[in-house]
């Protein structure tokens, strides 16, 4: 009996069409797979199911070989090596199922998501929360301020900064930090609480103006150039009026009041010459 050598496996590129609609779409490389030439086509399809997610009965294999025309591999019981399988070949796996019958693995809307209960998380000994408790950090620090106390502290700080910096409506100002040629200057249009800007840990929604005295203070500035974020409105509430993208709200410590006239065309040309 003559010795029959074991056929060498051949490394084949496995691809799928990048578009399930366009028939001439460029293929997408999935991976490489070593194929034994003596396998049947059905055996090959079974191996490819774990890579492509397409059931063997719904697969159509297109064999691409160097210097040869592409060919569709037919007959599940035929030997894959008989189709001229050589090194450098590519098998393109097509899904014959209609689009509606194919699972959409990108749609996560119907996937049930596990949410760890708060009580369970708080009982874990090796969580970040447990570490903070042990280190007495954040809200576990006995000397730390509550969110409401922190807000009142910020409000007092804002009032001091406003007095110290002489921040008054209609005065000219620049926003810090500023350095030529990127200096944002404008006119102060608003000084007061902005309840639509949230403060961490505190619900600052109010219904009465008198109760806003304890809220942090913001400075609304109408910029000379459209380098802002709004038109004087934040969270659907208007605090002052200016053209869109020229309004900005900053904290008092970011404001420097002074004689900052609006930039003229000559100033802009001079700045451009300095950059050159």
Helix content: 10-25%
Query: What spatial order of strands do you see in the largest sheet?
Result: 2-1-5-3-4
Summed up, the helix count is 5
Tally of structural domains? 2
Count the E strands: 12
Q: If classified by CATH, what would the architecture of the largest domain be? A: Roll
Evaluate the radius of gyration.
34 Å
CATH fold name of the largest domain, please?
SH3 type barrels
Report the major sheet. 5 strands, mixed
How much is the average pLDDT? 85
| Assembly status | single chain
What low-confidence regions span 5 or more consecutive residues with pLDDT below 50?
20-24
- Residue share in β-strands: 15-25%
Please report the distance between the alpha carbons of the first and last residues: 88 Å
The shape is elongated
GO cellular component, one term: nucleus
Domain CAP-Gly: 217-251
Family: Belongs to the TBCB family.
Protein name: CAP-Gly domain-containing protein
């Amino acid at each position: 009996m003559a010795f029959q050598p074991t056929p060498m496996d051949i490394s084949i590129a496995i691809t799928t069409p990048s578009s399930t609609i366009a028939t001439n779409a460029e293929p997408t490389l999935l991976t490489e797979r070593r194929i034994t030439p003596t396998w049947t086509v059905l055996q090959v399809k079974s191996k490819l199911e774990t890579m492509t997610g397409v059931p063997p009965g719904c697969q159509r294999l297109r064999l691409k070989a160097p210097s040869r025309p592409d060919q569709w591999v037919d007959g599940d019981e035929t030997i894959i090596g008989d189709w001229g399988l050589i090194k450098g070949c590519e098998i393109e796996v097509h899904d014959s199922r209609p689009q509606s019958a194919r699972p959409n693995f990108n749609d996560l809307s119907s996937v049930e998501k596990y949410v760890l209960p708060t009580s369970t998380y708080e009982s874990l000994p090796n969580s970040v929360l447990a570490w903070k408790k042990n280190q007495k950090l954040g809200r576990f620090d006995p000397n730390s301020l509550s969110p409401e106390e922190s807000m009142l502290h910020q409000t007092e700080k804002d009032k001091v900064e406003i007095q110290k910096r002489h921040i008054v409506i209609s005065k000219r100002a620049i926003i810090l930090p500023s350095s030529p040629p990127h200096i944002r200057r404008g006119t102060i249009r608003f000084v007061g609480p902005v309840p639509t800007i949230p403060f961490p840990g505190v619900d600052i929604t109010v219904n009465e103006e008198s109760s806003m005295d304890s809220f942090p203070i913001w400075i609304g500035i109408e910029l000379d150039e459209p380098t802002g974020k709004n038109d004087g409105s934040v969270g659907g509430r208007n605090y002052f009026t200016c053209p869109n993208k020229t309004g900005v709200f900053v904290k008092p410590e970011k404001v420097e009041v002074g004689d900052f006239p609006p930039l003229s065309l000559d100033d802009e040309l001079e700045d451009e010459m300095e950059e050159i």
